[in-house]
Structures are given as C-alpha cells and as structure tokens.
Amino acid sequence: MDIDEILDSVSLIHEDPKAILKSYTKEVNFPKGHLLLHAQKCEKSIYFIKKGIVRAYSNTAENEVTFWFGKEGDAVISMKSYIANQPGYENIELLENSCFYEMNNTELQKLYNEHIEIANWGRKFAENELLKTEERLISRQFRTASERYDELLKNHPHLVQRVQLSHIASYLGITQVSLSRIRAAKN
Amino acid sequence: MDIDEILDSVSLIHEDPKAILKSYTKEVNFPKGHLLLHAQKCEKSIYFIKKGIVRAYSNTAENEVTFWFGKEGDAVISMKSYIANQPGYENIELLENSCFYEMNNTELQKLYNEHIEIANWGRKFAENELLKTEERLISRQFRTASERYDELLKNHPHLVQRVQLSHIASYLGITQVSLSRIRAAKN
DNA sequence: AAGAAAATTTTACAAATGTTAAATAATGAG
DNA sequence: CTCATTATTTAACATTTGTAAAATTTTCTT
Predict the structure, then answer these.
(1) Which intervals hold domain Cyclic nucleotide-binding (chains A, B) (predicted)?
(2) A3-142: which CATH architecture?
(3) What is the pLDDT of residue A122?
(4) Strand pairing class (B35-37; A64-70)
C-alpha cells in the first residue's frame, strides 16, 4: 500500500500540502520479530504499514497480553507518546518482515501549526483512530469471546496461521484452553 | 465549569478564535431522566457538561449495558455522528438536572476549514478523547472488575449514591450479584 | 411514622471458565 | 525422513461467575 493511498485514506488532501507531508516521510524496513515500538518509552516517530503484520502487547505481572493486530495501511503509533509526549502501553512486534512509512512526531506537530490542510488531516487522523478504538471498546463490552474470535478471523483472515493461539487467547481475554474449546465447538 | 475553562482544557487557544468558537455555543438545560443523545440516530450537536452527571448505555437483545459515565467538563458526543455522520451507539441519560454547552456539528466543521487555530483545537479535542477511550479500553483489557470498581469510585466518588448498582455492574461487565459479592469482600 | 415498592444482598445451585497435566499434532533442524 | 522441540488440544478437577429466588435493606408515598 503506497504512501499516497495511505495519506488519502486518512483524509483527502490537495497535492501541495500532501507533497509537504510526503517530504517528511521515509521508508524503513525491519525483519520479523523486530520490536518497532517499546512500552514505557516515549516514542519519537509514528509509522504506517506499507507491507506486513504486527501485534501490540503489554507485559503484566503474570503474563503478556496482546491487545491489537495491525495490517497494511494501519498506523503503528503510541498514542500516549504522539499526543501527550508520555511513555506508552505498547510493545509492537513484527509478525513478518515488514516495510513502514516513518514520520517524525516533532516535525509533524510543526506542520500542524503551519498548514491548515495538514492540521485538518491530523484532525481526521485522530478522529479515525478514535472511531477504531471506540469500536474495539464496544466489541469488548458487548460481544463474547467467541464472537470476537469470529470478528478477528474476518478482519485478519491470514492471522491465525501466523500467530500463536496463546496471543489470540490473551487478545480475546480468555485462556488458551478456553480458546481451544471455542475452536472445537465451531467444527 | 464555564465555557472558557472547558475550551482551554481541550487546548489553549487565543482570544480571537476562542471568541468565534464561543459565539457558536449556546447554553441548554434539561431535567434528570432526559435523553440527551439517542442510539441509532445521527446526532446534530455535541455537548459539554457545565453542570451534571450523565450515563451512556446501549440496549442489547437481552438487557441494557452502561458503558460510560460523564461529569462536569466532559464532552457528551456520539463520535460516530460527529466524525462519520452515522448513527451512534449511545443513549445518554441525565442522572440529575443538568446544564450543557451545545455546539452544532455542521457549523463546527465549517470553522475547522476556515481557522487553523480552531482546526488544531478540534484536532486536540479528538486526540484527548482518543486518549480517554484508549484508557477505557486498557482498563477493560488489563484490570479485573474489582479493580475497575475501585477506579470508578475514585474517578466518580459521588456516583455510587446516585446510580443503580445494576448499571454499575453492567459497566463493569459482571452481574449485579457479582458486584454485591465484590462490595461485600471490601468490608 | 407506617406500609408499599424498589433496590440490594444473600443463598443455593448450575454453568462456564480457569488450572494443571497428559496426549496429540505440527514444525523445524540435521 | 526422522527425531526432537514446540504448539495445540483434551481431560480431570477446582474455582469463579451466573441464575433464580428469597431475605433484607432502603426509598418513597401517604
């Protein structure tokens, strides 16, 4: 997924301000297993996935909890860092060799104050991410683990082959044994 | 909480653009029990709470699930309506006689395209709401019902006296009987 | 203040989910 | 291809949470 498509999918933007945005973007590659963002660290950059799959997880006292999966076109970002300049929740691990568009946070903030179209692009970016986060919250509050498993299969069809079921179980908020029971019941 | 304090708490903004924003704001009052926003309906306005407490809930096939409580300074808003012009999830019920600042969505969108400071104020607004929503999601994913009950007491100390425990239980994602057990264990 | 209604807690039991460990299946290295 | 390693499923049992109903407490009305 190329940069034009990604920027436009956030919000349509004229060529001139888009060219400015793009000039602050650079392409970076990392191998499977690489940690792109680190929990408890204030991250300086945000990323958009050109190619690849990633997962976000946090370590608790007892175990590791996966709370998000990202794919082509998705933003990989610590919102706490981006918005509040504070350490974030997420470790982001690459589930395959991946390619990203990287933007520096400080430079982006500067652009927001200089170009109204870029400011509104940034506004739409936050708004879109907000809708997605709200949808995740609603999903957790209103749907069972089994329903959310179906959702996950639908939104990330290739994921189940590539990710350990223990990660998916923690994403669903259940144990791996429970997930096995859910899967068994679907056959 | 007055309008200046609310607007500034979203993001500091100079007097001129703030005056413009304020000129599009009007004060409205409604009694306890009033439904301010309606699920499955595209809402035309957003509100900020000057005085009062509200709760957001959705009806499922079986029952009613409360998923948010709002207090002074909070935005009462259907994000789906505000951002995507689509019907939202939330019924918003007033838990006491309340006073709001109302802004019309269409007019606000127009201002975003005309004034860069207002565009960036709107960006910060979405970003702040995003952080709050993310915090709610993290809370649900990483904390037990008992811990979330403590959080709720801390964030909304006056709430427990004013809201039925069945609403709080559904907010926590447990039954009222379980909540009673949790409360009993804390004494 | 008394009685009725509503809200909350408690009880007893059922159902669902977690825990631990063993069995089976899948993956990868040599 | 075979063996060793890792991942997943299954089984047995313990614990937690839900359900339904009764008991108690609180709130509201008169």
Answers:
(1) 28-115
(2) Sandwich (2.60)
(3) 98
(4) unpaired
From the CA of A164 to the C1' of D4: give the distance in Å: 20
HEC profile for chain B? CCHHHHHHHHCCCCHHHHHHHHHCEEEEEECCCCEEECCCCCCCEEEEEEECCEEEEEECCCCEEEEEEECCCCEECCHHHHHHCCCCCCEEEECCCEEEEEEEHHHHHHHHHHCHHHHHHHHHHHHHHHHHHHHHHHHHHHCCHHHHHHHHHHHCCCHHHHCCHHHHHHHHCCCHHHHHHHHHHCC
Q: Which of A119, A131, A140 is opposite residue B120, by nearest beta carbon?
A: A119
The per-residue pLDDT for range B70-116, each reduced to its tens digit, is 999 999 999 999 999 999 999 999 998 999 999 999 999 999 999 99
Cβ-Cβ contacts under 8 Å between A and B: the total is 92
Beta-carbon separation of B137 and A137 below 8 A: yes
Please tell me which residue lies nearest to nucleotide D16, judged from CA to C1'. B178
Biggest alpha carbon distance in chain A?
Answer: 57
Chain A hits for B116, CB-CB cut-off 8 Å, are: 113, 115-116, 119
pTM of the model: 0.94
